[in-house]
């Protein structure tokens, strides 16, 4: 189990549910069963990407990271690839439960994840591909939440007809035959913020094995600092939660980037990448709080110490 936990980087899983929750908040909706399906789909697709990543990099890891589960022989490449396929199928199945619009977004997310791991990871397009994946994950939450709000629950039996079409609510509009709307446009800015952060972290991660880059962590420091300051600028009536979340984000993401810029050694570069990954949790909290979902933001902030504790046992990078 520890070998699989290391392969799948389970300590990074705490950064995933917030995508769907922040997406629901950005859409102006409360979490519902569609959000739950989106969280499950995101977790599966994220872990599929982790397994596929190590399968694709098994030859490189044999040189640079021989301790990893695949090059060390603790997990076979066939098992890793099989796990990636099964997790992908599970993720798409869960997304389909939330409706066709959610499945369409999840399919785009799946294509991005597989393209990144198999083709784009070692190209200049890698940061943009990873950023697109995170942005799509947030939009998946918004889409699934909106779809579940307008569609009947497939797990519940249809009500018996009482002289009128059981599919017709009191307003007279058909529910089952109405196409569920796509992700609201209000979720796009939040997805763009999450994508910008992901781009910066991915750019730094390209140097984590050998270090040596000062400009990249310095640029990431500028990007994360700008995002944090923008998120902290909220109306007074929004309360303290948005500013608190933004401060937690800056502390988690910016400080390690500063250390890596001052000393671009592999350990400090890896620490900057790990901090950037964990910083997604307070970033998601800040996005939710700015959308008026303080309860969601506080729930996400409660995951920060858990993620930090587990990261000490299983590396997120």
Largest sheet at a glance? none
Briefly note the structural class of the backbone.
mainly alpha
Residues in helices, as a percent range: 55-70%
The average pLDDT score comes to 87
Strand content: under 5%
Question: Summary?
Answer:
This protein is an all-alpha fold. It has helices at residues 2-8, 17-26, 33-56, 58-64, 77-97, 100-120, 126-150, 188-205, 215-232, 241-262, 266-278, 280-290, 294-301, 304-311.
Protein architecture, described:
By secondary structure, the chain is mostly helical. Helix content is 67%, strand content 0%. The model is unreliable at 159-181 (pLDDT under 50). The relative contact order is 0.14. The chain is built from 14 helices and no strands. It starts with a helix and ends in a 6-residue tail after the last helix. It is globular.
Produce the secondary structure layout.
Blueprint: H1 2-8, H2 17-26, H3 33-56, H4 58-64, H5 77-97, H6 100-120, H7 126-150, H8 188-205, H9 215-232, H10 241-262, H11 266-278, H12 280-290, H13 294-301, H14 304-311
List keywords for this structure.
317 residues; mainly alpha; globular
């Amino acid at each position: 189990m520890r070998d699989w936990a290391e392969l799948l980087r389970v300590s990074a899983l705490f950064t995933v549910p917030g995508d769907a929750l922040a997406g629901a908040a950005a859409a102006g909706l409360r979490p519902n069963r569609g959000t739950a399906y989106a969280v499950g789909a995101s977790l599966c697709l994220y872990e599929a990407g982790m397994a596929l990543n190590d399968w694709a990099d098994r030859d490189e890891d044999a040189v640079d990271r021989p301790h990893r589960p695949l090059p060390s022989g603790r997990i076979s490449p066939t098992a890793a690839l099989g796990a990636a396929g099964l997790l992908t199928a599970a993720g798409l199945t869960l997304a389909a439960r939330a409706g066709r619009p959610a499945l369409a977004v999840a399919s785009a997310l799946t294509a991005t994840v597989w393209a990144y791991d198999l083709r784009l990871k070692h190209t200049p397009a890698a940061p943009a591909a990873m950023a697109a994946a995170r942005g799509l994950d947030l939009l998946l939450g918004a889409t699934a939440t909106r779809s579940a709000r307008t569609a009947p629950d497939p797990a519940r039996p249809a009500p018996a007809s009482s002289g009128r079409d059981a599919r017709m609510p009191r307003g007279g509009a058909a529910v089952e035959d109405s196409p569920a709307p796509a992700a609201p446009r209000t979720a796009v800015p939040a997805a763009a913020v999450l994508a910008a952060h992901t781009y910066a972290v991915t750019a730094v991660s390209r140097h984590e094995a050998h270090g040596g880059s000062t400009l990249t962590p310095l640029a990431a420091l500028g990007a994360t600092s700008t995002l944090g300051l923008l998120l902290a600028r909220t109306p007074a009536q929004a309360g303290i939660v948005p500013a608190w979340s933004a401060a937690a984000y800056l502390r988690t993401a910016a400080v390690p980037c500063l250390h890596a810029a001052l000393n671009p050694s592999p350990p400090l570069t890896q620490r900057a990448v790990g901090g950037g990954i964990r910083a997604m949790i307070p970033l998601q909290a800040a996005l939710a709080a700015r959308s008026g979902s303080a309860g969601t933001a506080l729930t996400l902030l409660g995951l920060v110490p858990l993620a930090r504790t587990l990261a000490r046992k299983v590396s997120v990078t």
